[in-house]
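Can't paste images in this forum, so I'm doing it all in text. The chain is below; anyone willing to post the predicted structure tokens underneath?
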Amino acid sequence: MPDPRFLHRLSDIPAADWDGLHDGSNPFVRHAFLAGLEQHGCLRPEWGWRPRHFTLWDGDALVAAIPGYLKDNSHGEFVFDHAWANAYARHGLDYFPKWLGAVPYSPVTGPRLLARDDVDRAALAEILRAEVQRIGWSSAHVNFHRAEEDATFGADWMLREDIQFQWHNPGEWRDFGDFLAAMDHKHRKNIRQERAKLARSGVTYRIVHGDDASEDDLLAMHGFYLQTFAEYGNAPALTLPFLRHLAAAMPRQLVIFLAHSDGVPVAGALCLRGADTLYGRYWGGATLPGLHFETCYYQGIEYCLREGLTRFEPGAQGEHKLARGFLPTAVRSRHWVAEPAFAEALADWCASERADVARYAQALAEHSPFKSADPA
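Text version of the structure:
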């Protein structure tokens, strides 16, 4: 049986060993991304993030892992369980700390059960559950796992589902004109008008990858990021050194869309690029009509079409994305709760939630902007 260990620093594992457990298609589980968060001040215990990466070993060989954290709150997770924590508190029980398998601040679906083969992958969830129970933590959670990992979780891991809005090229769109041609007249006209109005204002765009980005480019993007968080009254987690680290360590995965007016940056969107998917992460900018939609959505769609990427995931939430070609897509998470009475009640709660989400997805599908149903 593999030897389980919780590690407090990803830097304790050589990058080649960690990255040998996945196919490299998803940038968020790369050693460079996860270790960079730890090394450049993005994860702090006072924010509720303490690295506890769950690993399985055969002697000195790493055979499987889940990026993981011991959480003292539920901030920055995007799978909301505040009601669960409150219910625990009302019954005099401690919900925190809990263990979370996820990518911090990133509601992005991707591999979570990392292993060299199916045997070791299958062992991960069961051994993790046993270790969490042995230590005495309230629960274990794995957020935004891939659907094909479902079979690896036992029946005692409750399934939750939610909706995100994602763009998918069905295969026949070669350029933005093809994309618009698939839409009904109303939505096609609205997008053309939005883009034309912004273009008349003189705003232009530069797209820079990490190895093209100057220090001024990184400063501008980080400034827009700080601006957005300040406007919403939230604490920004990503530091400028981390952004510099991404540019150096993941030069072709980091993609920044910078809007300029009269030669001055007025908005930016920070994205990461996977093998077939563009992931929109952060944006900030001036309050110009149409600037947000162009910077966060239309420039990214054009980039995907030009680069041959088939998917664009612009982030969590936002029904306004539907009218711009981003269709409802199910995302998933798994949850194991140690307290039997709570586990039984929450299983019913999760089933009811999944039914509500299914009805919501059906209602959204009836408002598709495309001429036919989901073009995918």
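The first helix runs from residue 15 to 19. The radius of gyration is 21 Å.
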